[in-house]
What we know:
Layout (H helix, E strand, L loop, with lengths): L7 E7 L20 H13 L8 E3 L3 H14 L3 E3 L16 H10 L11 H18 L4 E3 L1 H9 L7 H6 L4 E8 L2 E4 L6
Parallel strand pairs: 1-4, 2-3, 2-4
Antiparallel strand pairs: 1-5, 5-6
Amino acid sequence: MQDPNRSLTVLLIRHAESVAPGISGFDEYTRPLTAKGFRDALQLRDSLASTLIDAAYSSPYLRARQTIEPIAQARGLTIEIVGDLRERLLSPADLPNLRTHLKRSWNDFDYAPPGGESSRDAQARVLRVLDMVASRHSEGTVSHGNLIALALHAFMPNVDYAFWESIPMPAVFTLIRDGGRWRSAVDGER
Length: 190
């Protein structure tokens, strides 16, 4: 087990652009990156070339894995799939006015449509993953915009629905763990 007092940096990476939901033959787990998404993943690899990355963790969604594959391959890393890095399931059924429900979930962290996951529950899930990563390695996690925003919200209360909505694809956010506590490195964001 790693020393809980050592400094640790984790990069939270939102996946690059993927094909639109509802495209025939793809579900949430199998939607791939677009051609632009693949180019952006290569640019991300190049922009992080001088960054020390010891490990790569990814959501089980194909688009997340494809985003980090160039980074992992350049460093000879195996990508570890972590089921709890999946995107938050707001509802198991299609929701009319999805953005209205998402906005409500940001305003009321306990709100979830029937069978869905509240912001509070999704945030707790991603924080457990961060603690697991901290107990093992130094850097490298790829997930989804809503889940990443919920993780950032735990350390930056000003992260809200509007922040989530504005996150580009891909995006990199830096968290630092010092003395067993996480903090956002806003000035270290890329």
